[in-house]
Amino acid sequence: MSNPPSVSIIVPAYNVAPYITETLESIFAQTYRDFAAIVINDGSTDDTEARITPFLDRIIYLKQKNSGLSAARNAGIRRAQGRYLGLLDGDDVWLPGFLERLVGMLEADQKISAVFPNAYFLGSPQYAGRLYQDVFTVSEPVTFDRVLKRECYIFGSLLFRRSVLDEVGMFDEGLQGLGAEDFDLWLRILQCGHRFKFTTEPLVKYRWRHNSLSNNSAGILRCTISVYEKFLAEERTLPAQRELIESRLLNIRAQLNLAHFKDLMRARNYKEAAPQLEQANKYYQSAKLKLMQAALHVAPGLVRQWAMK
Question: Please, what are the domains in the chain?
Fold first, then answer.
């Protein structure tokens, strides 16, 4: 391109055939027009490519073997030329004012490195009528410690300066856990002193699917653990941050034990559920959990009812 766009939009697409058309249409409905859309087909095995085909004259299309979300995003970022990068998953939808609003926020304050909006839940009976920030809290200031402790959630469909990645690096393709790649990158950006800003205005329709990478509680906990362990191993993690992570890990691992316990109880796998409950209660030291441990051996059906509440 002789005149690079201001914004490069990174759209990873893996088996999103029912949704990708609406996603791409939402890009071309933007009121802000100085952008290029980069779509990365991450080895889809459904009709995703056929749904993308009508847009080929308006997008940069990349195709690769299935390598995961981080690798797909990184492939798009390497191709990007814009000074701003926008992230849009292949099953979500931007409202028409997304780019205009967020580009305006970045251009109004050069000290801000990344901006993110609120969102409507799409396709979620559980959260019907609620906004993302009603469920996943956010408030000023958006700091490393508050994001680390999950007191402040950064919404993943956002806009940030390309120069930030030149400093902190791209998505970590080696991380395991649902959503770990986002959580890790936001923390690295904050750790380097960059600032996030947000708006409470909903500018995205966020699709919450039963098999989504972000709607599983055990998956979210595994994500948190993998990122915490990574930061513990990094030399630039400050002693106070390290202490905070170590204390949080004990809690998160206990939460994961409880999540595994409930999943196993739902499956009536009482034998494997018992040690998960035991490990959780080593941390919680709860009379209720101790009672459930005892009852599990004589009345597992009753304990299962408690666990489902």
Answer: 7-222 (3.90.550.10), 238-308 (no CATH)
